[in-house]
Amino acid sequence: MRNTDRYPVEGANALWQLYKTVSFWKVVKNFIVIQIARYTPFVGVKNWLYRTFLRMKVGEQTAVALMVMMDIMFPELISIGRNSIIGYNTTILAHEYLIREYRLGRVIIGDEVMIGANSTLLPGITIGDGAVVAAGSLVNRDVPAGAFVGGNPIRIIRQSIVDSADVRTESGELAEVLDDEEAGILH
């Protein structure tokens, strides 16, 4: 289950009552900043816009690709760690408006995470350090650190990703890292 806070509404659906839950002027400001950031090819400028105007937490050396769509209404609920990559045209949502309620949830993306292009992250999820999300995925639940996930909705493809550059023998030489098939591991 995703970690969201639920707010019931009465009468018309929650989206129809949008400006009872968030200021119109906040949405206008956020929309303008996000649209500028979506087309800005300079990641440093983009991160500055997110931190300064949207109050997002964005780690050093994080790269947010072109056309990434941050949550317009509650971007301050999004946190991206250090040295992560958010792929082209990804959508990160911190809210969802339903018929009888709306939900808000933090989106926490760890350090050195890679999110493939055209992915969607739903509110209330955490992606652990070093995880990889395949392109075109729907992240509807937490992703463990180091996991490789993909699909709609996501499923774990590999529990832990090992970078051969980080595996060394006691003498300091690079060790050969076998993938599951080479090692004879069956899932």
Automatic annotation (TrEMBL):
InterPro entries the record matches: Hexapep, Hexapep_transf_CS, Trans_hexapeptide_repeat, Trimer_LpxA-like_sf
Keyword S-adenosyl-L-methionine (UniProt): no
UniProt signal peptide: none
Superkingdom classification of source: Bacteria
Parts of the chain that traverse the membrane: none
GO MF: transferase activity
Keywords: Repeat, Transferase
A UniProt-annotated Pfam family: Hexapep_2
PANTHER family linked to this entry: ACETYLTRANSFERASE, ACETYLTRANSFERASE YVOF-RELATED
UniProt-recorded name of the protein: Acetyltransferase
Organism: Tumebacillus flagellatus
